[in-house]
Write a structure and sequence with these properties.
With 391 residues, the chain is of the alpha/beta class. It is 43% helix and 17% strand.
Length: 391
């Protein structure tokens, strides 16, 4: 499978840049022939991957902030589109990322090469609406320029990409659902998955015993959409807070952190750790990982928690990686009563906690980055097969 992989950001940096880097490595490991066009390459990739940056030459890099992020993304798209013109007959599938794909998709269509558009999050309009509605409900304003602040220009461009791409790569059933609900046909939606790093995420032993104190962990981006405020409310309602500890790791936008601190009201069982680089160590020391998220692409952090032997306590956005009463407990988004009951269950029933932890460890092998690479390759094969059938 000859793949042109277009990624407009700093491949190998954090967040989606890390996801894309691992995806490229997984594809190479799965046997794909990858031609990589990153904006900038921040970490090395396997030698089999051909790398041609678009916004860097040697040590010189185009400064995204100086040029403006949207202009930089558009420039990357135009460069990749021009390069693709010269690759007719040499590429089987084109893999693009949001806000930097439209010109590349148009050229691929003219050359009759199937395109797959990565969807690292839910439908953009859905994400904007859900996050902004919750911000209004709790009285927290997003900072100007925040990625979830409603942006008509980004929305218009991404919705055109959604319509124009041959296929949308959805890393979870939840993401696919947000597109189906907006009229996208099921045959346009291809499922794949993300993963975790086995060298970093592993249990201390096969079945870790409970800590002396019941320990719950929230870790990740301190954004309203992740639902940390639901977790704090539920924790304080549960008897677990009387002799347990709830660690919250991550950098929060200032106004949201103030809201979380008001909810916590100085309770000594809630510990705000700030940004941490030892998340896997924190997971290995916790009984429960909590993620009451309202919007997600694919909960990488849940796979990481499972791999560390931590039981996930999550919203139904995370169904797929997490299975209720098999390796996790799952509540409906925003249902603080149910979330409180689930904390109570795991706090009071050590046998249930141990059984779910065993289920998490049993399933960990399904969610490695190696498995993720194979899942993307299968999605490519499906895209090529469906495109050939249409022709």
């Amino acid at each position: 499978m000859r793949v042109l992989y277009s990624f407009p950001h700093k491949l190998g940096a954090d967040r989606i840049c890390y996801t894309a880097w691992q995806q490229v490595r997984g594809l190479a490991s799965a046997g794909a022939d990858v031609l990589l066009f990153p904006g900038v390459l921040s970490r090395p990739v396997p030698e089999s991957v051909q790398v041609r940056p678009t916004l860097a030459r040697g040590r010189l890099r185009l400064p995204y902030k100086l040029v403006g992020k949207l202009r930089a993304l558009a420039l990357h798209d135009r460069i990749v589109a021009r390069r693709l013109e010269r690759l007719a007959g040499q590429v089987d599938v084109v893999h693009v990322w949001p806000s930097a794909a439209l010109e590349t998709i148009k050229v691929a269509k003219r050359l009759r090469i199937p395109t797959v558009l990565e969807r690292p999050n839910a439908h953009t309009r859905f994400a904007y609406e859900v996050v902004n509605e919750e911000c209004r409900r709790i009285g927290v304003a997003l900072p100007k320029g925040h990625e979830y602040e409603f942006n008509e220009d980004i929305l218009r461009r991404e919705e055109e990409e959604f319509r124009t791409a041959d296929f949308l790569l959805c890393p979870s059933d939840f993401v696919a659902k947000t597109f189906r609900e907006r009229g996208f046909p099921a045959e346009k939606l291809l499922r794949h998955q993300y993963g975790f790093d086995e060298t970093d995420c592993y249990p201390e032993n096969q079945l870790r015993k409970s800590a002396n104190k019941f320990t719950m962990l929230f870790a990740g981006q301190g954004a309203v959409r992740k639902g940390a405020h639901f977790a704090v409310e539920a924790w304080l309602r549960s008897p677990a807070h009387r002799d347990g500890v709830f660690n919250i790791a991550g950098s929060f936008i200032p106004e949201y952190q103030q809201y979380i601190e008001r909810l916590a009201n100085g309770d000594p069982s809630i510990v705000l750790l700030g940004h941490r680089n030892d998340i896997s160590d924190l997971m290995r020391g916790a009984d429960v990982f909590i993620l009451p998220t309202m919007e997600e692409g694919s909960p990488l952090v849940c796979a990481e928690a499972m791999a560390c032997g931590c039981v996930n306590l999550v919203s139904d956005v995370c169904v797929g990686v997490c299975q209720h009463m098999e390796n996790a407990l799952i509540h409906n988004v925003g249902d603080v009563d149910a979330l409180t009951q689930h904390i109570d269950l795991l706090y009071e029933d050590e046998r249930l906690l141990a059984r779910l932890r065993e289920g998490a460890l049993h399933n960990r092998g399904q969610f490695t980055w190696g498995a993720a690479g194979k899942s993307v390759l299968r999605a490519y094969e499906e895209a090529v097969s469906r495109s050939t059938a249409k022709a």
